[in-house]
Write a structure and sequence with these properties.
With about 325 residues, this protein is an alpha/beta fold. It is built from ten helices and 15 strands.
Length: about 325
C-alpha cells in the first residue's frame, strides 16, 4: 500500500504505518526502532561490524592489569566526541579521579563538564566522613579539576539504598534529555555488590537494564573484575546482560611478556566476531591494537627490538608490534 507525503509517494508495510504518516513531520524510510551505534573503541568495533544495539546492557569483564579504567574512559570519550552525553556512575573512586584518567590519556573533558554533557553520579564519596578535609588536601591542579566536577556531580547519600541510587541515575539521564542518545558507564559492579544484599544487586541491574537500556534506548557499560568468586554476582549475569566484552592477560604468546587481550564474547541482535585481539593504551590515541610476528630476535629486524622488552628474550619467540 502507498501514501502521499509532501508530494512524495511512499510504500508502506501496513495500514498502521501509513496512518501514522498523517500526523508526522518526517518519514522513516528504514526501521529505526532498534538503532545501532559504534563504540569508537577500535578492537570492539572490529568485532561488531554492525555496531552495538542502543538498548544493550554490556558487561566489561576484566582482570587486574588490563587497564579497564582506560577502556571505560575511551567509551565515554568517543561518545562525547560523537556529540552524545555521558553519565558516569562511580563506586571505586571520586569523580576527580575519573577526570584524571581522561587527562592521563590526553583527553580534555573539561569543556564537556562545563557544558553539562558529562555528568557523574558519585557513589564513592559517601564513605568520607569529612569530605571537606579530603578536598583541602588537594593540590592546586586537583582543586582546579574538582571545581569542574562539583556542578556536574550528583552524590548518593547511601549507595546501599538501591532506590536512591536508581533515582540519582534517572535524574542525571533526565537532566541530559537522554533518550535514544548518550551512554551510561558504571565503574564496578563488584564494588556495588559488596555493599548490598545479593537480591538488591540483581534487582538494581535488572531495573537499570529495563528502565535505561530498554526504556530509554541508552546503552550501559558496566565493569566486573574476574576473581575467585566467579559464580557469584556479578559474574553469573551472563544470561541477563545483552553483551559481554572480555579482557584478559596472556603470558603464553611472547616469552617473558604479559600481553593484554580483548574480545567481544556476546552481543545480542547483531553479528559478532568473537576473536581475541592484542592491545595496549597510548596517550592521545587510546587503545592500540598489536600484531604478533613470529621470529627470533637474531633475525632481520630483531636487533631493533633489543632492550625494548618486546622480543621475548633468547630463543624463538613472537614479537608484538603496534598497528595504526
Amino acid at each position: 500500500m502507498t501514501g502521499e507525503h509532501e508530494g512524495e509517494t511512499y510504500t508502506f508495510c501496513s495500514e498502521g504505518c501509513r496512518d501514522a504518516l498523517e500526523g508526522a513531520d518526517k518519514v522513516f524510510t528504514q526501521y529505526h526502532g532498534f538503532r545501532r551505534t559504534p563504540t569508537g573503541v577500535g578492537p570492539i568495533d572490529e568485532s561488531l561490524p554492525q555496531g552495538v544495539p542502543r538498548n544493550s546492557f554490556v558487561m566489561l569483564t576484566d582482570l587486574a592489569g588490563t587497564r579497564t579504567g582506560s577502556v571505560r574512559a575511551e567509551l565515554a570519550w568517543r561518545a562525547l566526541r560523537r556529540g552524545e552525553p555521558v553519565v558516569f556512575v562511580t563506586f571505586l573512586e571520586p569523580p576527580v579521579s575519573v577526570v584524571q584518567e581522561f587527562v592521563t590519556l590526553d583527553w580534555n573533558v573539561l569543556p564537556y563538564l562545563e557544558a553539562g554533557r558529562l555528568r557523574f553520579v558519585d557513589a564513592f564519596t559517601y564513605r568520607m566522613e569529612d569530605r571537606d578535609r579530603l578536598t583541602e588536601r588537594f593540590n592546586d591542579w586537583n582543586s582546579h579539576l574538582a571545581g569542574f566536577c562539583e556542578p556536574a556531580t550528583s552524590r548518593v547519600r547511601d549507595p546501599s539504598d538501591v532506590n536512591e541510587l536508581e533515582n540519582r541515575v534517572d535524574d542525571a539521564l533526565e537532566s541530559l534529555d537522554m533518550e535514544d542518545r548518550g551512554i551510561v558507564v558504571l565503574d564496578s559492579l563488584d564494588e556495588f555488590g559488596s555493599g548490598v544484599q545479593p537480591v538488591q544487586a540483581y534487582r538494581f541491574v535488572k531495573d537499570l537494564r529495563a528502565t535505561v537500556c530498554k526504556g530509554r534506548f541508552v546503552p550501559v557499560y558496566a565493569s566486573a573484575t574476574v576473581s575467585n568468586n566467579g559464580d557469584r554476582f556479578p559474574h553469573d549475569l551472563d544470561y541477563l546482560v545483552d553483551g559481554i566484552v572480555e579482557m584478559q592477560l596472556n603470558d603464553d604468546l611472547v616469552e617473558s611478556s604479559l600481553l593484554k587481550q580483548v574480545r567481544v564474547r556476546k552481543m545480542s541482535g547483531v553479528l559478532t566476531l568473537p576473536k581475541w585481539v592484542l592491545y595496549e593504551y597510548t596517550a592521545g590515541e587510546g587503545i592500540v591494537t598489536i600484531e604478533l610476528h613470529e621470529g627470533s630476535p637474531d633475525t632481520e629486524g630483531g636487533s631493533e627490538n633489543e632492550g625494548d622488552g618486546r622480543d621475548g628474550g633468547s630463543g624463538s619467540a613472537g614479537r608484538a608490534e603496534s598497528t595504526e
